[in-house]
Structure formats: structure tokens, C-alpha cells
Amino acid sequence: MEIKTDVVIVGTGVGGLFTALNLPRENKILMITKSDVKSSDSFLAQGGICVLRDEEDYDSYFEDTMKAGHYENREESVDIMIKGSTDIIKDLVGYGVEFEKNGEEFVYTREGAHSKPRILYHEDITGKEITSKLLAQVRRLHNVTIMEYTTMIDIIEKGSQCAGIMAVTKKDDKEEELTIWAANTVLASGGIGGRYKHSTNFPHLTGDAIEISKKHGVRLDNLDYVQIHPTTLYSKKPGRRFLISESVRGEGAVLYNKDMKRFVNELLPRDVVTQAIHEQMEKDGTDYVWLSMEHIDKETIMCHFPNIYQHCLEEGYDVTKECIPVVPAQHYFMGGIWVDSDSKTSMKHLYAVGETSCNGVHGANRLASNSLLESLVFAKRAAAAISGTPQCK
Ligand SMILES: Cc1cc2nc3c(=O)[nH]c(=O)nc-3n(C[C@H](O)[C@H](O)[C@H](O)COP(=O)(O)OP(=O)(O)OC[C@H]3O[C@@H](n4cnc5c(N)ncnc54)[C@H](O)[C@@H]3O)c2cc1C
């Protein structure tokens, strides 16, 4: 089957949805997703989304992002993300997203490597709150069609430019190949966790866009920069690892070795805490270390982390009364398809946003809660570039 559209967007996470919402309504847009529309990592985000609290926080936020990224970050991208953050939060609130508030004031939480609290959250299901509200908005648009269970298998290259994609769609157990011609193509296909045995990501997120881009000589960047999250719930069951958000440690949870002794400052950057856990497990001859929430009062656990509380209970642990076993797992990909500050790849008419792209914001290691924000800021810029609106640097 052949389809013609103005813009094809591969992926229905925050990157894809926000691009669609910010494109002109006269554009005909086709969004495809490999699985059902809700199976994206965007729905899984727990901890929250960073925002510049006020002008005085700029230097500190910039430094925290750079330090976590081992100063390998692209400074221009970090600046764009931080300066764009307040507008993004306004956009989200306008779309009906609710963040924790005390009266009229936002409440901010803190995660590892942040020198102060600057993270907005919705219980421990911030990603679901944001993504479901964006999805509801997109579903109201008459110019957007979403095709589920439709997988991009290639891009169409014509005279060194991107002219759309090839995809396979599944219906009633039958597969059909699609040739999707598009004036502009946006790759928003998420991370690579599906390639790992232990990952917090959905298993169908296998870095397809990156592999396809490589085949076409599209520039890639930082392919060896993979973030391992220090704390996922240890389980012998196969499948996706359940994340114990860093904000749990931000609120006071501590890590213990087999002798119930602390061995690391829990709020150091993720890569440092991960390495300390690996070393401790090796020393102790164990497959996990312990995480204790004993210093967090029960009300905070129940209000801020109800989903984590419930999941652990289902696995047999009451976090208000006992420690839980945790182990590091693959979590995030800082590298990907190289893009400029307007999310343009090295191939004309091909854009990349979200985790599959690499605009350099995260450098060698992502600062907690910067990825939802980065995806949204640079998705909006991709939409502006496609529609020809100049963006300020
Ligand atoms: C457990 C967990 C907790 C997290 N917590 C936070 C947090 O608190 N704060 C934060 O900022 N970030 C967090 N993150 C990271 C953040 O959620 C992701 O980086 C971000 O949501 C990525 O958005 P995306 O739109 O790029 O990709 P995704 O939301 O992963 O969407 C990818 C989409 O691409 C589709 N797709 C993939 N391949 C193909 C293909 N070949 N053809 C068609 N479709 C395809 C998928 O089906 C999906 O729709 C967390 C991640 C995880 C896994």
C-alpha cells in the first residue's frame, strides 16, 4: 500500500506527540508506533521533569547538567533546554498536565546530582500524567492519524534526501508492507533497552532508527554512552526491570551492603553510584544491594511513591517496614542520531527527537529528569523548523 503525507512521525512517546502538537494544523500528519500507543518509555517515567525555577537557578542548573555529563555536553543545547523549560511547563499545564502543588505553588523534588530541588512531579507516575494528556490532545486533532502495530523498517532515500519511510503494519495477524511518502520525516523511536537482558525500557525499543540511519550514512554520535540506572528492583523473573526512582533517594532512602552498612553517597551522579554498587556486589558476592526507606516518613512514601509502594508490595516487600533488594540495569541512551539545535539530522528532510536523537544535552551521562524536558524542547524546535518558523538560539 502507498500513503502520501506531509509529515510522518515514527513513535508515539513524548517526542513524537509533542512534535505533532506543535506542527501547523494544515499539515497532514501520520504517526506510527511499533506496539500499542501507550507502550512507550514516556509512559514509564517516574521521577519528574526538570524546570528552571528562577533566573538565579540558571548557573547552578547548567553546572549540574554539565558536571553529570562529564563536561562532554554541547553547551548550546544545554542552554536551549534550560531556557526553554519554563515555556514547556506552561504548555504542559495548558494541556491539562497536573504537577504536585502546595496551594498555588509548585512543589519541587530533588534527584541525584542536582544541587537543589528543581523537579516537578505527579506522584511517581509523572510520565503517564504528561504522555496521556499529550496523547488525548493529539487524538483530538483532525490532521493526525495514528497507526498502531506499524513498524518502520527503512527510510526512503531519494537523491541523498529523505522522502519518507518503509513500514510493515499488522492487522488480524496479517502483515502488509507500506510505502509512506512524506515531505518530512521525524524519527522519535526512543531508546535501545530492548537490546539488553536487564533494562527498565520496553523490550520493543531496540534502536531501529539508529540502525536504519547508519545504513544510510546518516551521522550518529556518542554510541558508547549508555546510562545504567543504579536502582531497579532485583527480581529473578525475566522481562523489564522495575525502576526505583532516584527521587526515592532524593527524599532520603539509603543503600546498604550485606552487613547493612552504607557504602556510598546515594546522591552522587548515576554512573558513580552504579559503579559503587557493582563494586560492593562483587565484594559481598551478592546479586544485589539493599535500599532502605526507613528515613522517609510513611505519609511521604504513600503520597509521593504510591506506585513504587504498590509494585514492591506485589513482589512481597513492604517498603515502609523493610529494605528492598536493588540492582543496576540499562536505562537510557545518551548517544544516537546526531542532530543540530533544530533537531535536523545530517540528511535533508529527516529529523530526530527524543531518546533516539543526540543533540548533546546529556554529554556522557544524563542528569536525572532532564530527558522528558529535552525531548519536549527539541520536539517543539523540530516542529518549528519543519513549519519554517525561525527559532532563537
Ligand atoms: C522506567 C523509566 C523511568 C524514567 N523516568 C524518567 C523521569 O522521571 N524523568 C525523565 O526526564 N525521564 C525519565 N525516563 C526517560 C524518559 O522516559 C525517556 O527518555 C523519554 O520518555 C523518551 O521519549 P521518546 O519519545 O524519545 O521515546 P519513547 O517514549 O520510548 O517512545 C518511543 C516510541 O517509538 C516507537 N518505536 C520504536 N521503534 C519503532 C519502529 N521501528 N517503528 C515504529 N515505531 C517505533 C515505540 O513504539 C514508541 O511509541 C525514564 C525512563 C524509564 C524507562
TrEMBL record:
The source's domain of life comes to Bacteria
Which co-factors does it depend on?
FAD
One of its Pfam families is FAD_binding_2
What does it catalyze? L-aspartate + O2 = iminosuccinate + H2O2
* Residues of the FAD-dependent oxidoreductase 2 FAD-binding domain: 6-372
MF terms in GO: L-aspartate oxidase activity
Keywords for this protein: FAD, Flavoprotein, Oxidoreductase
Name of the protein in its database record: L-aspartate oxidase
Origin organism is Faecalicatena faecalis
